[in-house]
Design brief:
By secondary structure, the chain is an alpha+beta fold. It has one domain. Helices cover about 25% and strands about 45% of the residues. The strands form two sheets. It has a five-stranded antiparallel beta sheet with strand order 1-7-8-9-10. It has a five-stranded antiparallel beta sheet with strand order 2-3-4-5-6. It is globular, with a radius of gyration of 17 Å. The protein starts with a helix and ends in a 19-residue tail after the last strand. Keywords: Signal.
């Protein structure tokens, strides 16, 4: 079963039991060591994405566990060299038999929250990932699986509230 389908079923069950207002998520750090099974693919990715410091970057890669990517979901990589404070290169990618295909790259801190609610964005059910930065700044990214494959949407959200907490904008004054 795909990770989106699993996330959808878990969300539906949790929202039925708890109600939308209590939707939470899982908060974690990208801090696990790179498993041997991924080292060759990540090395190739670092040569492509970080040609000037590929070896140092490979030595500094951390991931978030095995579960997501082993079940067909995204691989979260954090490269802890060449950072600006705790803002390091964070990549979200898809693992194939031959390579890791980068889908989104940004600078962020090590902490991520994955929402347990699905939101329909432009006709596709999407899962929210919140990446933390400096001074409480956050970046919302939404993982989507459409007919053409996986894609990501980044929100310039400022306060970053969940869809269930969102309030309609005030009426425009003309």
């Amino acid at each position: 079963m795909s990770w989106y389908r699993s996330m959808f079923l878990a969300t539906a069950l949790s929202l039925t039991v708890m109600g939308v207002a209590s939707a939470q998520g899982a908060r974690f750090r990208i801090e696990d060591p790179l498993p041997d099974v991924l080292k060759g693919r990540v090395a190739a990715l670092m040569r492509s994405e970080r040609p000037r410091d590929a070896e140092a970057a490979l030595a500094a890669v951390r991931i978030k566990g095995d579960r997501f990517w082993r079940e067909g979901g995204p691989l979260l990589l954090r490269i802890e060299t060449g950072c600006h404070g705790d803002l390091c290169m964070v990549m979200i990618g898809k693992v194939t038999d031959q390579a890791i295909i980068p889908q989104l790259t940004l600078r962020a801190g090590p902490t991520v929250t994955v929402s347990d609610e699905l939101v329909e964005l432009w006709g596709i059910w999407s899962t929210r990932f919140i990446l933390e930065g400096h001074g409480g700044a956050k970046i919302d990214v939404w993982g989507r699986r459409g007919d053409q494959g996986d894609s990501w949407i980044a929100d310039a959200c400022g306060g970053c509230v969940s869809a269930s907490e969102a309030k309609p904008p005030p009426p425009s004054v003309k």
